Amino acid sequence: MLSSDKVDDELEMTMVCHRPEGLEQLEAQTNFNKRELQVLYRGFKNECPSGVVNEETFKHIYAQFFPHGDASTYAHYLFNAFDSAHNGSIKFEDFVMGLSILLRGSVREKLQWTFNLYDINRDGYINKEEMTEIVRAIYDMMGKYTYPALRGDVPQQHVEAFFQKMDRNKDGVVTLEEFILACQEDENMMRSLQLFENVI
Amino acid sequence: MAAGVATWLPFARAAAVGWLPLAKKSMPKPPVDKKSRNDEILFVNVSGLRFQTWKNTLDRYPDTLLGSSEKEFFYNEDTQEYFFDRDPEMFRHILNFYRTGKLHYPRHECIQAFDEELAFYGIVPEIIGDCCMEEYRDRKKENQERLAEDTEAEMATDIPLPPDSTSRERLWRAFENPHTSTMALVFYYVTGFFIAVSVIANVVETVPCRPPKGSVKDLPCGEKYSLAFFCMDTACVLIFTFEYLMRLFAAPSRCKFMRSVMSVIDVVAIMPYYIGLVMPENEDVSGAFVTLRVFRVFRIFKFSRHSQGLRILGYTLKSCASELGFLLFSLTMAIIIFATVMYYAEKGTKGTNFTSIPASFWYTIVTMTTLGYGDMVPNTIAGKIFGSICSLSGVLVIALPVPVIVSNFSRIYHQNQRADKMRAQQKVRLARIRLAKKGTTNAFLQYKEDGGLQDRDSDSTALCVKNRSSFEHQHHHLLHCLEKTTNHEFTDELTYSEVCMTESVGYRTSRSTSLSSQQGLSSSCCPRRPKRRAIRLANSTVSVSRGSVQELDMLHVQKVAHQRLSVCASSRSSLNARSEDLKLNCDDRDFTAAIISIPTPPANTPDESLPPSPAVPGILRNSRSGSFTHETVKISSL
């Protein structure tokens, strides 16, 4: 699995070998303590000795978790969400910042991160096309063999339901504030948000 | 799953926060990881050599000894370390596998020792990285071949023939392995002797003997002592015919035997004699008869049964056919070109030998193979120039492929011996890798079937669910979250196609109302899983009718009377052994009754819906027999 990655990484190593900022700085910038950062970095460094993850590697890794379906589209959006500098690679700092928000951030931060994930073109609004893309990507991960069987318009219905819930002023787009408000009213979601706190 | 993937799992799970706004249902509870999450360094002592590694490193491969709880058996409380009484040199490679994800084969180690170590630590050899895989496989095959030869040699002398083998089997065995019995050996040598005699007779009968008294011309011996030679020939042919018929009788598969090369050679060896007997002494056909006698020389090929070397030669020629064919083809091209050129160059000369292009072929061949008989020589200057070019190119054209063919012989010979074995191993290797991949996809489905997804307290989780590693727990939780987000479930291909079939059946018979009502009713009183099982049951027997599905329906809804319950309860005891198939939240009693009802309808012609009430007591009566419930359990486990 890692053979092609090693080749890429070797090429990158001659050009780029990224070292993260110091441990203290990262500890200050994120909500992790030193031990957790150490564990995270050891795993990260083991997988990517060059210190960066490019999109291909990321897609490959993410696809391992969803062998039933095709995770590449969603992995692409996820990669963009983590790659805050938008330079096509995730460094350890990006990785750890993203994790810090998702696992230890406040509710508002998490929702903001999610909003950024959905807002593909980063214009501050989520419109129906972007949402359809995301939902389709998620359904692609389920694969073909599902129960009940996936009919063609299920993602569309899902998007409609989403907009029904989120778009308060019915102007066809969802802004950050609408999104946060609607999510905070959804108790199920608030409860679920707590579940992921002890992932590390 | 590969090593590093475990490192990324927390990241993937964290990213699941992105699904939350879309999820139609709330997310399931994550698995509780009771173990301390602090990473610690483990000490592993292998025969005195101490290794240290992070616990996480070993946890990457939970299905090996070091990654699972099996290593606890080797834990030494006094020294606080894991002690293994194994080879420390090999352990280095094993540990590197955990660290880097690649297993390397050390070339200086014995292949069997390495295999044993791998087996001990629970690592499948298929994981060996590509860099070392060739070496590993070659060594392993060599080893296996050597072992196989040894065992074959042992077996050949040992003769453990089953005592109940027929005489036919024994005869075949005697033919194939002449060393098994004295009779076979005698027969083997006798036939060999007669083959030699026959061939020598064929050769000698053409030698000119002293002419009989009164004649000047030298006669070939065959004609002088024609009777003697004829008797010898008859004897040989009789022996060969007898041998052939015996082999034909003893062969386990006569058609296959008759098609084999050796039997064809046998037939060709004895046919000329019989044809000669049958044919009348006629001037016209005697020419053809003489031609037939040429085929007697093929008896020499019968020696290939006696000689391993001949067999190998024939086999390698066969396998080298493409190279030989290429050589022939290029030679033919060159011959045609040069023959044409020589013909036109020598056309003008008076009394030339180059009378036509085909006649020039002979010159070209003789020149290109550097034989140079000299029976045809060019006279014109142009002819001589082209002739010299022809001989030079002949050297090249012939000299080049020949070493290639010669080296091919040895390479192909060894390769072909191993090619079949390698193909078989490749299939096995691919199958194992596919199985491992399927294992991960099926693991989640299996996990669901084992009821791991139900939000229960830890007390009531089944044993099989508990034994999963924390990695698997978390991975399955992630997949479960995805299911909740999309409100669809993962299934396998079989169920998916069955469900499609059900739905198409429903639409075809336009009695979709009953199916949907069944769905509706089932979803009201039971979670989805038993309904899926019910549909699976419905489709498991082809002739199951809509009526039987309706019957299920009825039984679900109707309150089961107490006397039926008691029968079900008694049958449930046998079903409890397979209780993991029936882990349900809903009323097991209804479902049990439903299972029992299924097998009976297929016996009848199932177009009409069976009236439920008279059928039910009949069904329950049948259910008392233990074997019948066993059968129902089998069907339900589909």
TrEMBL record, chain A:
Pfam families on file: EF-hand_7, EF-hand_8
One GO CC annotation: voltage-gated potassium channel complex
Major location category of this protein: membrane
Record-level Gene Ontology MF annotations: calcium ion binding; potassium channel activity; potassium channel regulator activity; transmembrane transporter binding
Annotated InterPro entries: EF-hand-dom_pair, EF_Hand_1_Ca_BS, EF_hand_dom, Recoverin
Keyword presence, NAD: no
Keywords in alphabetical order: Calcium, Cell membrane, Ion channel, Ion transport, Membrane, Metal-binding, Potassium, Potassium channel, Potassium transport, Repeat, Transport, Voltage-gated channel
UniProt keyword Lipid biosynthesis, yes or no: no
Name the record gives this protein: Kv channel interacting protein 1 b
From TrEMBL, chain B:
Domain BTB: 40-139
Family annotation (Gene3D superfamilies): 1.10.287.70, Potassium Channel Kv1.1, Chain A, Voltage-gated potassium channels. Chain C
Segment forming the signal sequence: 1-16
CDD domains to which the protein is assigned, alphabetical: BTB_POZ_KCND1
Molecular function in Gene Ontology: A-type (transient outward) potassium channel activity
Subcellular localization(s) per the UniProt record: Membrane
One annotated GO biological process: protein homooligomerization
Superkingdom in the source lineage: Eukaryota
GO CC terms, sorted: dendritic spine; neuronal cell body; postsynaptic membrane; voltage-gated potassium channel complex
UniProtKB keywords: Ion channel, Ion transport, Membrane, Potassium, Potassium channel, Potassium transport, Signal, Transmembrane, Transmembrane helix, Transport, Voltage-gated channel
Membrane topology: Multi-pass membrane protein
Main location: membrane
Tagged with keyword Membrane: yes
Transmembrane region(s): 183-204, 224-245, 257-279, 324-345, 357-373, 385-406
InterPro entries for this protein: BTB/POZ_dom, Ion_trans_dom, K_chnl_volt-dep_Kv, K_chnl_volt-dep_Kv4, K_chnl_volt-dep_Kv4.1, K_chnl_volt-dep_Kv4_C, Shal-type_N, SKP1/BTB/POZ_sf
Family according to the record: Belongs to the potassium channel family. D (Shal) (TC 1.A.1.2) subfamily. Kv4.1/KCND1 sub-subfamily.
Subunit note: Component of heteromultimeric potassium channels. Identified in potassium channel complexes containing KCND1, KCND2, KCND3, KCNIP1, KCNIP2, KCNIP3, KCNIP4, DPP6 and DPP10.
The protein, known as: A-type voltage-gated potassium channel KCND1
